[in-house]
């Protein structure tokens, strides 16, 4: 593994221009060091909890809970019939007070709040703890992306390598986190589990990075050769490009992460995983010659498509081969739904 590239001496709260153009991960040291939340967290966990108390307005949060035996690893159970954690809803202050009480326990149960919208959970938090995303505007959009801000909170935890479709800027507000990233082309070496039965929505690697079983997962050694790693403290941030696999470890008894994610695609586009699911249903089990033929069709119409792909068809007659608009996406989606219902 090698360290993730770092940028220092940043203007607090201001992302460097051209950050996302290279589609490579970057550590942004001190990017959110000016946040009041970070300043309180550097004082003490108690101060950080008190600060969040002041932002909370009563909405419960969804909590993943696991016994001490899982060692913070949010994952499947031993026989893959379910998960090794339970779920509960509770007021955020109640959870945070419990975390403070457990700080002195050597092997505490795991409590993990994941991907909770900040504006719903902590209204007013972003008035003083936020990022300026204007430098992410491109020549095509001329506007900053509309990012969703989420909070991740708990004690020590390990989230297995997974990918996200959106680009992601993860900001450590309290505690320390270790990120281990793998480029998208390492998919075959990560031994990914089911894509439709997952711990938290995304497919995950079945390899435990804390104690990898190279006899069971021999190609994972190759993945590690391409891995990049960084440890972040309060005030630091990390840019995780779309589709990069990443494991996230919360290292302290109290950890808070705020992340911003956005898609570099029109709002009318559906998640590509939908196409993968349909391809598994309709393509994977075809005879090999037919699969190769369909691979060529996908290359022609999707992966290598350009202006010449449909240039021979009158513009008014291109239908699904025309540039997709919001209206066109609606028509295509309705067509697919109708066809699926006919099965």
UniProtKB/TrEMBL annotation:
Gene3D superfamilies: Cupin (2.60.120.650). InterPro entries: Cupin_8, JmjC_dom. PROSITE patterns: JMJC. Signal peptide: none annotated. Pfam families: Cupin_8. Residues 111-277 form the JmjC domain. Transmembrane segments: none annotated. This is Cupin. It comes from Roseateles chitinivorans.
């Amino acid at each position: 593994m090698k360290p993730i590239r770092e940028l220092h001496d940043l203007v607090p709260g201001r992302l460097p221009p051209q950050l996302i153009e290279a589609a490579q991960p970057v550590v942004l040291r001190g990017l959110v060091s000016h946040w009041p939340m970070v300043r309180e967290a550097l004082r003490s966990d108690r101060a950080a909890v008190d600060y969040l108390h002041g932002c909370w307005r009563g909405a419960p949060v969804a909590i993943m809970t696991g016994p001490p035996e899982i060692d913070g690893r949010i994952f499947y159970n031993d026989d893959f019939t379910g998960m090794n954690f339970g779920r509960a809803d509770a007021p955020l202050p109640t959870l945070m007070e419990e975390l403070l009480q457990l700080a002195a326990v050597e092997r505490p149960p795991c409590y993990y709040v994941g991907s909770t919208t900040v504006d719903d959970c902590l209204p007013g938090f972003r008035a003083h703890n936020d990022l300026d995303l204007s430098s992410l505007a491109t020549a095509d959009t001329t506007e900053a992306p509309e990012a969703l801000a989420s909070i991740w909170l708990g004690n020590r935890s390990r989230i297995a390598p997974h990918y996200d479709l959106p680009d992601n800027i993860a900001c450590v507000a309290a505690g320390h986190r270790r990120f281990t990233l793998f480029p998208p082309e390492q998919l075959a070496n990560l031994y990914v589990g089911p894509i439709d039965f997952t711990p938290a929505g995304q497919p995950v690697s079945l390899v435990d990075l804390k104690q990898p079983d190279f006899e069971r997962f021999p190609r994972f050694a190759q993945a590690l050769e391409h891995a990049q790693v960084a440890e972040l403290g309060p005030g630091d941030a990390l840019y995780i490009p779309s589709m990069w696999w990443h494991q996230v470890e919360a290292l302290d008894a109290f950890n808070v992460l705020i992340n911003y994610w956005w898609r570099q695609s029109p709002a009318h586009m559906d998640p590509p995983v939908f196409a993968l699911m349909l391809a598994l249903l309709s393509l994977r089990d075809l005879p090999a010659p037919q699969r190769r033929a369909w691979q060529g069709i996908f290359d022609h119409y999707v992966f290598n498509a350009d202006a010449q792909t449909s240039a021979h068809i009158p513009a008014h007659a291109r239908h699904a081969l025309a540039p997709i608009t919001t209206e066109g996406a609606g028509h295509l989606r309705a067509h697919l739904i109708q066809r699926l219902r006919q099965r």
